[in-house]
UniProtKB/TrEMBL annotation:
Ranges of residues in domain FAD-binding PCMH-type: 34-204
Alphabetical list of PANTHER family matching this protein: BINDING OXIDOREDUCTASE, PUTATIVE (AFU_ORTHOLOGUE AFUA_1G17690)-RELATED, FAD-BINDING PCMH-TYPE DOMAIN-CONTAINING PROTEIN
High-level lineage: Bacteria, Pseudomonadati, Balneolota, Balneolia, Balneolales
SUPFAM superfamilies: FAD-binding/transporter-associated domain-like, FAD-linked oxidases, C-terminal domain
Cofactors: FAD
UniProt xrefs under PROSITE patterns: FAD_PCMH, OX2_COVAL_FAD
Pfam families, A to Z: BBE (PF08031), FAD_binding_4 (PF01565)
Keywords in alphabetical order: FAD, Flavoprotein, Oxidoreductase
Family: Belongs to the oxygen-dependent FAD-linked oxidoreductase family.
Official protein name in the record: FAD-binding oxidoreductase
């Protein structure tokens, strides 16, 4: 039991301990597979609470985890026996529409930010599920529907306010602490607790053209190769993921489509929706689809399209990725074979196309490790029955191992399973940027106070 008396005297938010009635609810994260028991959850209400929580933990030698949106599948927002510094109540957003800037607190979700920015027809590039935290997603990079047009989420940062391990509040930008700013754009939660981000915004919507066309998996070869050729030649306006999926048995889908194994093309056209409609025609006419949900919809709705399939704490998740050096015939055959053998139909196999602005930025300009690839494979394992956990996780790991022959070493740190490979994983994910990251870690967090993350170890360790 942690004695919270000293912290309580100044703390404005809530301090939750195991004997509190809502403790079990408060220790939930998105992934229902995670079952951790922190000794203290410090729900901060502002920057001062974050500073006090960091100082209190450091002085009392308490292990710390940091929670933004709680989506990380490894459950790194939580810890056993230590203290969760929880920013989930810090969701304030201020939009300066004339300057196209938004200041966003460290616990906001992408849904929060889209709501505030879309009122002005603006948006910052986020992810594809609205409940995901702005913080964890941005600090690891941030892949969404605007990656080709406007880059990763982290590429759109103007500055960041961060509480470091010694309880100091710093600003990081191109002109203040630029090394730290470089590291925060991809280097994850290694350097401190971000209390606010300032994002550059772009004019988007309010209506966008989405492609969401699902073909029978039996014609996967044709669909995959058509999509690959289309995407390589496509303009920056189009960002897309291709998914192997079994349509859920829910009201979201017509009776005749439910349960069908499909290969789905999902894409957004960031620009004139009429142009988008024309551009997507080729993808929608590959063959007779099982279902075509494509159409012009509000950007804010497009941002929530996948939300129903990833509910909080109800399902089990293990997402892990690997760069694909190319999508040649052999690689495509292996993907199709793997998709066929998925141990549970709720598992997704996703291929993200990279390119455009996110690849034009030099790989040494930010810490994000994988700018030089064209495709990323993500095994998005989703299952409901806890009895399937071992089967699904070991299948996912074996499949990723098999696919290594078609891959570089790179991967996306925000899709890194349970981070089981430790240092080896981060070294490979950051590639040539790793050494510089360890130096910056050593400068800002020499004792590795922030280590429950995709951990970059300081040089002294
Ligand atoms: C359903 C689902 C959909 C997803 N979709 C996408 C997607 O479209 N694109 C994409 O790029 N990724 C996506 N992800 C992955 C997502 O980027 C990571 O899970 C990310 O870690 C989530 O951030 P969070 O703040 O919600 O996570 P948390 O679990 O709260 O935090 C994860 C880690 O981030 C760090 N962190 C969190 N908040 C702070 C803070 N304020 N300051 C410093 N460090 C902090 C900590 O190290 C923490 O351990 C998705 C994940 C899920 C489960």
């Amino acid at each position: 039991m942690i004695n919270i008396e000293e912290l309580q005297s100044t703390f404005r938010g809530r301090l939750i301990q195991p004997n509190d009635s809502d403790y079990d609810e408060e220790r939930q994260v998105w992934n229902g597979y995670i079952d951790k028991h922190p000794a203290l959850i410090a729900k901060c209400s502002g920057m001062a609470d974050v500073i006090d929580a960091v100082n209190f933990a450091r002085k009392n030698d308490i292990e710390v985890s940091v929670r933004g949106g709680g989506h990380n599948v490894a459950g790194s927002a939580l810890c056993d026996d230590g203290m969760v510094i929880d920013l989930s109540e810090m969701r304030g957003i201020h939009v300066d529409a004339s300057q196209k800037l938004a200041r966003v607190q460290g616990g906001a979700t992408w849904g929060d930010l889209d709501r505030e920015t879309q009122v002005f027809g603006l948006a910052a590039p986020g992810g594809v599920v609205s409940t995901t935290g702005v913080a964890g997603l941005t600090l690891g990079g941030g892949l969404g529907w605007m990656r080709k047009k406007h880059g990763l989420s982290c590429d759109n940062l103007q500055s960041v306010e961060i509480v470091t391990a010694d309880g100091e509040l710093l600003t990081a930008s191109d002109t203040e602490n630029p090394d730290l700013f470089w590291a925060l754009r991809g280097g994850g939660g290694n350097f401190g607790i971000v209390t606010s981000f300032v994002f550059h915004l772009h004019e988007v919507g309010p209506t966008v053209m989405m492609c969401a066309v699902m073909y029978p998996v039996e014609i996967a070869k044709t669909v995959l190769s058509t999509w690959k050729d289309f995407m390589i030649a496509s303009p920056d306006e189009i960002s897309s993921q291709l998914l192997f999926w079994a349509l859920p048995d829910t009201d979201d889908f017509p009776d005749e489509a439910r349960g069908k194994h499909v290969i789905a093309i999902t894409a957004m056209y960031v620009g004139d929706p009429d142009e988008g409609e024309k551009a997507f025609r080729e993808l929608r006419e590959i063959n007779t689809p099982v279902l075509d949900l494509s159409g012009k919809i509000p950007y804010s709705v497009a941002q929530t399209m996948f939300d129903p399939f990833f509910p909080k704490n109800e399902r089990h998740y293990y997402f892990k990725s690997q760069d694909l050096a190319s999508l040649n015939q052999e690689t495509m055959d292996a993907l199709i074979e793997g998709a066929k053998n998925r141990p549970v139909p709720s598992m997704l196999l996703a291929i993200w196309h990279y390119g455009g602005e996110m690849n034009r930025i030099a790989s040494t300009d930010t810490a994000f490790g994988s700018r030089n690839t064209t495709f990323l494979m993500s095994v998005d394992s989703v299952w409901d029955d806890p009895a399937d956990s071992e089967k699904v996780i070991s299948w996912s790991r074996n499949f990723l191992d098999q696919m290594k022959q078609f891959s570089g070493d790179g991967m996306y740190v925000n899709f890194s399973g349970f981070g089981e490979e430790g240092e080896d994983l981060v070294q490979k994910a950051y590639g040539d940027n790793y050494e510089r990251l360890t130096k910056i870690k050593t400068e800002y967090d020499p004792d590795n106070f922030f280590h429950l993350n995709q951990n970059i170890k300081p040089v002294s360790e």
